[in-house]
Amino acid sequence: VGGVGKTTIMKHVHNRLLKEDKFKKLIWATVSQDFDVRRLQNDIASQLEKTLSDDKNTTIRAGELLEMLRKQGTFLLILDDVWSSFSFEDVGILEPTTDNGCKLVLTTRSAKVVREMDCKKVQVPYLLTDEAMQLFLSKVGQDMLPNPNLESIMKDVVCECGGLPLALKVLG
């Protein structure tokens, strides 16, 4: 579901890992609904501080990117906002194994994408009512709570948001 906090959670994970030495390189790429192999290849290469050839053949570019990733040693690649499945090999993404120490995480709204890309599914839960109210109040302001007329309205708003953090933040 959109707005449940997938990207926000991954930003926290990314920022926390920046402080650790677990991976030699952290790579973040936003895939988006209008997936483009060349753009994704360029995004990954630029974070490796490299450039790919301008060759129109994405297979050649995939080979170049694969070699760049192999030379990195351990890395974490976060692919955010994946809407449809694609082949890691076609892009040039090194397949993570226990031997190479590389990890790949993707965020998606689609269980089908998770299955097709042979990934482990970790579902982000909705906020509980109390958590949702706390988040909403943090945006609206705690000073609104003593007003009994507003309290009922706020509870209705929080209920309508269905535990989605993004909706609570925007409406707050």
Automatic annotation (TrEMBL):
Transmembrane segments: none annotated. SUPFAM superfamilies: P-loop containing nucleoside triphosphate hydrolases. Residues 2-143 form the NB-ARC domain. InterPro entries: Apaf_helical, NB-ARC, P-loop_NTPase, Plant_NBS-LRR. It comes from the Eukaryota. GO terms for molecular function: ADP binding; ATP binding. This is NBS/LRR resistance protein-like protein.
